[in-house]
Amino acid sequence: MTSTTPARSAAQLTSVTKTFGVAPQEVQALRAITVSFNAGEFTAIMGPSGSGKSTLMHLTAGLDRATSGQILIGDTDITALDDAALTVLRRRQIGFIFQSFNLVPTLDAMSNIALPFELDRRAISPEERSWIDRLVDELGLRDRLTHRPHQLSGGQQQRVAIARALATRPDLIFADEPTGALDSRTSREVLTLLADASTKYGQSIAMVTHDPVAASYADRVLFIADGQLVHELRRSSAEEISRAALELETRS
Amino acid sequence: MSLGETLRGHCPSILVSALGAAFGSCLLTTIAGLQSSIEGIFGPGASFRTAVFLLHIVAGTFFGIALFVGAIVTANTFSAVVAGRVQTIALYRLLGASAQSQRRVFLREGGMVGIIGAVTGVLVGIVLGLSLLAALVANGSLTAAPASVPATVAFPLVAGVVTTTAAAWVGSRAVLAVSPLQAIEAAQEAPFGAVRRRGIRTGVGFFFVIAGLLGLALGVVVSLDNPNGLFIAMLGGMASFTGFVICANLFIPRALNLVGKLFGSGPESRLARANSLRNPERSTRASIGIVIGVTLVTMFCVALSSMNSFFTPEVQADPDNVAAFQAMTAVAVGLVGFSVIIAAVGVVNDLSISVLQRRREIGLLRALGFTGPQVQRTIVTEAAHMAITSVLLGLLLGTTYGWVGVQCLYSRPMAGGGFVVPTVPPLLVASLIAATVVLTLAAVVVPARTATAVSPIDALQR
Ligand SMILES: Nc1ncnc2c1ncn2[C@@H]1O[C@H](COP(=O)(O)OP(=O)(O)OP(=O)(O)O)[C@@H](O)[C@H]1O
Ligand SMILES: [Mg+2]
């Protein structure tokens, strides 16, 4: 994974526009944005509140529809898919980690991890089983598998969510402020796990964050403002990222 | 909050309170009409007094059952309303309101709901009763008598308001557990499965169940050569049923779990099973009304048809007897069945609310790859768990009680001290199954649609 060879993309958005509401209350959340998430990379998305980060993520993950433009996940143009096909795509090709409420409260940790397989009505193969076992050990969840979400700390819940997202080896994992509800030590742990998943297993990850420290764990940082891609950094320190963010803010 | 907004969550409670009051006032108006019509012919006679008194006892019993089921439904509805307002209550608590003052808000709302419901219900019941009498006069079954509204309708009015208010008080107990912190934290769902420890209640319940079962058994044995056995069995039946209702929160969740397992292990049925067990108290209260209703309906039907089987084939075949038998069954089922309607309102409401409260969870499932139809199937399965469990429990209890009753009444004179085989009318089972299917589908239409309308983005928004 060198930055000199043109990377294959896990997801590719081409001139995507998203408009909410109708004039005169019309809001342009995304304005003809073109972005690519490289396969095997950990990408951070930053930008001021209301800049369109969440919208970008929702559209790319097939949770909402673009007003115009093209979105490719792997080789599939998802703008052409109907709801059922999108659902199956999410199930097999996309992983999610949210800020909170990641887990189904009635299921224990292991059932939550196995949920994507179960939703697919698919038995877990021996190969997948050993992969999950490895994830469970690496994420330190071994003795928590039979616990329900309310019996887990916030950090443990996030780790279960990470295990679930990694379990199906999706094309792309989306994380919307995954450390937003965690203290700084737990945040560091979670971010290290995400960064490791991308370096060790080549997992593509896209993470929305407001925190320059979180973004410094990523291979690449995208800056969004006003529904457009305005700047991009390769792996940088937290200081460099905050400086860039500040500059962009004062420029506008 | 405006009055309209306040009342919206209480619609089911108003409906339940109105149904109960209407039932009571309709019964009383009808009885009064029958009485004045009969007295118009024969003049006031002491023997009628007794008959009328007995009629009032019967009506009072059925009304009491309807009221009791209604109170359970209302308590459940109120606890759901409390759950929906936790954030607001927490905010008030944070700003210094006492838990008791917050709970009194619900008491006041309960009173209001009770008054609106009971007044409407009593008026509707009077109109229905008078129309029924008019219809009887019109088809010649009854001689015309001056129509009047008996003063006794004040009873369902008062009873309706009082029970609704009391049920609101019981249902709002959860207010006391709301912590001001819940206004600050994005509160995790309260740990469920953590049933409140209620040793005393469980103890009392078990005592009633065991004493009642012993009473039933003793009654059966005694009645083999003594007519008083029936009385012992009746007490035993009442005690065991009371005990069952008291500790239903121990039986019903287990029964739900068992029935749930019959649905296989697909993701939909697993999630549905987990959901019907997530709050055992609530599923219990949602199901118990149906259990009570089905038990009573079954008891009457089994008792009547088992009795019927004692008569000689000639007696059984006589069209007059058949008609009388069918009429008796219909009236009994109709009177008891009313509480099933009230219970059904509770089931519908419970499902709708539980879907509303699970928006985020459903959104999460959609995001992770649950399709709309899969979500819908989960909700339908959940409703089916509840309905099937309640009907099965009711059939089991009702058959037992019905059989014991017949056994005690007839073993001595008819079977010469032997044992009676209970008859479970196939028509009853068929119609209960049909009613279950209809109820499940009716209860599930709106919630299932709400659930599929949940967008996966809901899960991501705070
Ligand atoms: N469902 C919606 N209806 C109308 N407008 C919306 C909707 N969702 C988002 N918007 C608008 O689109 C713009 C982008 O919103 P978005 O949630 O993507 O911002 P964000 O970058 O994620 O902000 P934050 O950092 O605060 O989460 C905002 O102006 C927002 O008000
Ligand atoms: Mg956002």
From TrEMBL, chain A:
GO terms for cellular component: membrane protein complex; plasma membrane. Keywords: ATP-binding, Nucleotide-binding, Transport. GO terms for molecular function: ATP binding; ATP hydrolysis activity; transmembrane transporter activity. InterPro entries: AAA+_ATPase, ABC_transporter-like_ATP-bd, ABC_transporter-like_CS, ABC_transpr_LolD-like, MacB-like_ATP-bd, P-loop_NTPase. SMART domains: AAA. It comes from the Bacteria. Pfam families: ABC_tran. Residues 11-251 form the ABC transporter domain. This is Peptide ABC transporter ATP-binding protein. It comes from Agreia bicolorata.
UniProtKB/TrEMBL annotation, chain B:
InterPro entries: ABC3_permease_C, Membrane_comp_ABC_pdt. The chain crosses the membrane at residues 12-34, 46-72, 115-137, 149-170, 204-224, 230-252, 286-307, 327-351, 383-404, 424-446. It is a multi-pass membrane protein. Residues 61-170, 335-455 form the ABC3 transporter permease C-terminal domain. It holds the Pfam family FtsX. Its main location: membrane. It is found in: Cell membrane. Keywords: Cell membrane, Membrane, Transmembrane, Transmembrane helix. This is ABC3 transporter permease C-terminal domain-containing protein. It comes from Agreia bicolorata.
